[in-house]
Design a protein that fits this description.
Signal peptide: 1-26
Shape: globular
Subcellular location: Cell envelope
Organism: Amycolatopsis silviterrae
Pfam family, one: Peripla_BP_2
Protein name: ABC transporter substrate-binding protein
Helix content: 40-55%
Length: 324
C-alpha cells in the first residue's frame, strides 16, 4: 500500500507534468526531455569509456552500492538484485522500496534475461559482480553498461567513490557530492568533539562465519566509516595492513580483550544472524573486557555502503562515545 506521501508526490508530479505540457504546447517550444531524448555522452569506467544516455529513464542497478547510492540522490532504479537483506545491508528507510522493486537474480548470480526483460536504457554494476558468467559485452548488447570499481590504486572497498560515480552516470553528481560534504563535515565534527575519548579507546567491528569470527579493520566496509571518525582499531595482533578482514578461530576470542568497544553485525533491530550469534553466545565472548563492561553492541550499519547509511553509523558511534 502506498503511503500518503507517495500518493501526494504522484499527484503533484502529475499536475506538474500537465502544466509543463500545456506550457510547451502554448509556446510552441520543445521540452527539456525532448531535447535530451536519445542524446548520449562519454562516461569513463575502469574498463574503458562507454556512451551512456544523457538522461536515462530506465536504470537497472546490478549491485547494492549502485542501488542504494542512487536512492540516496532520489533516483529509483527499475530493478536490482536480490539478497541484500541476507547481510542486513538494507537501510530501513529503503526497506519497503527494496522489497517491492523487481529483482534480476542474486547479486552474484544475475539473470541476464531478466535484466533484458526490464527494457533498460542504462545498466550500472560493480566489480563485485560475477563477470565471468556474464561479461560486460553481454550486458552491452542489452543497453549501455557501466561497471564501476577496480581502477588502479583504488582501495578494495571504495564505496564513497562508487556511489558518486553511479550518481554521475544518471546526472546526479552534484547531489552525491553534497552528501559527501555533509558526511565529511559530520566526521570532522565528531572527531574534534570526542578527540580525547577517541585517543584512548579501541574499537572492534566483528562478525561470525563458518564457526570462526572476523575482525573488520579500517579498509573494510563499515571500517572505512570508523576510520574517517578517527577511531583506533583493536587489531588482534594483525600487522599486515593489507589484511582488512582477518579471520580467527573461536579459541582466539581472547584477542578481543584489546577492544574497549565491540560492535557486532546484526540487523537494524539488533538481532544478529546465526553465525554471529553463535560467537556472541560463547562463554569466552561473554568474558571479554568490553562485554563485561556493557560495551558490546549489535550494529545494523556493518555494511553501511552509501552516504545516508554511513551518516546513521556516525550517529551511532557518537552516541557510544557520548555515553562512554
Amino acid at each position: 500500500m502506498r503511503t500518503q506521501y507517495q500518493k501526494w508526490r504522484t499527484t503533484v508530479a502529475g499536475i506538474s507534468a500537465a502544466v509543463l505540457a500545456f506550457g510547451a504546447a502554448a509556446c510552441g517550444s520543445t521540452s527539456e526531455s525532448a531535447d535530451t531524448a536519445g542524446a548520449t555522452r562519454a562516461f569513463d569506467t575502469p574498463s574503458g569509456q562507454v556512451q551512456i544516455p544523457v538522461a536515462p529513464k530506465s536504470v537497472v542497478a546490478l549491485d547494492q552500492y549502485t542501488y542504494f547510492g542512487l536512492l540516496d540522490v532520489g533516483v529509483h532504479p527499475k530493478a536490482t538484485a536480490s539478497g541484500y537483506t541476507d547481510s542486513f545491508a538494507v537501510f530501513p528507510p529503503y526497506a519497503d522500496e527494496y522489497a517491492k522493486v523487481p529483482k534480476v537474480g542474486g547479486s552474484m548470480e544475475i539473470d541476464i534475461e531478466q535484466v533484458g526483460a526490464q527494457a533498460p536504457d542504462l545498466i550500472l554494476g560493480n566489480k563485485f559482480l560475477s563477470l565471468e558468467k556474464h561479461k560486460i559485452e553481454d550486458y552491452q548488447k542489452l543497453a549501455p553498461t557501466a561497471i564501476l570499481g577496480g581502477a588502479p590504486g583504488e582501495p578494495g572497498v571504495a564505496w564513497p567513490q562508487w556511489v558518486i560515480q553511479a550518481a554521475d552516470a544518471v546526472g546526479k553528481k552534484p547531489e552525491a557530492e553534497a552528501l559527501k560534504k555533509r558526511y565529511e563535515e559530520r566526521a570532522a565534527q565528531i572527531k574534534a568533539t570526542y578527540a580525547d575519548k577517541l585517543s584512548k579507546l579501541k574499537f572492534a567491528l566483528i562478525n561470525g562465519g563458518g564457526g570462526k569470527w572476523f575482525l573488520n579493520l579500517d579498509e573494510s566496509w563499515g571500517g572505512t566509516i570508523l576510520k574517517d571518525l578517527g577511531v583506533q582499531f583493536a587489531r588482534g595482533g594483525v600487522t599486515d595492513r593489507a589484511n582488512n578482514t582477518p579471520e580467527f578461530s573461536i579459541e582466539n576470542l581472547d584477542k578481543l580483550n584489546e577492544a574497549d568497544v565491540i560492535l557486532y553485525q546484526a540487523d537494524y533491530q539488533g538481532k544478529a544472524g546465526p553465525d554471529t550469534q553463535q560467537i556472541v553466545d560463547l562463554p569466552a565472548f561473554k568474558g571479554l573486557k568490553a562485554v563485561k563492561a556493557g560495551k558490546a553492541f549489535p550494529t545494523g550499519n556493518f555494511y553501511a555502503l552509501h552516504y545516508k547509511a554511513a551518516m546513521a553509523f556516525q550517529d551511532e558511534i557518537e552516541k557510544i562515545l557520548k555515553e562512554y
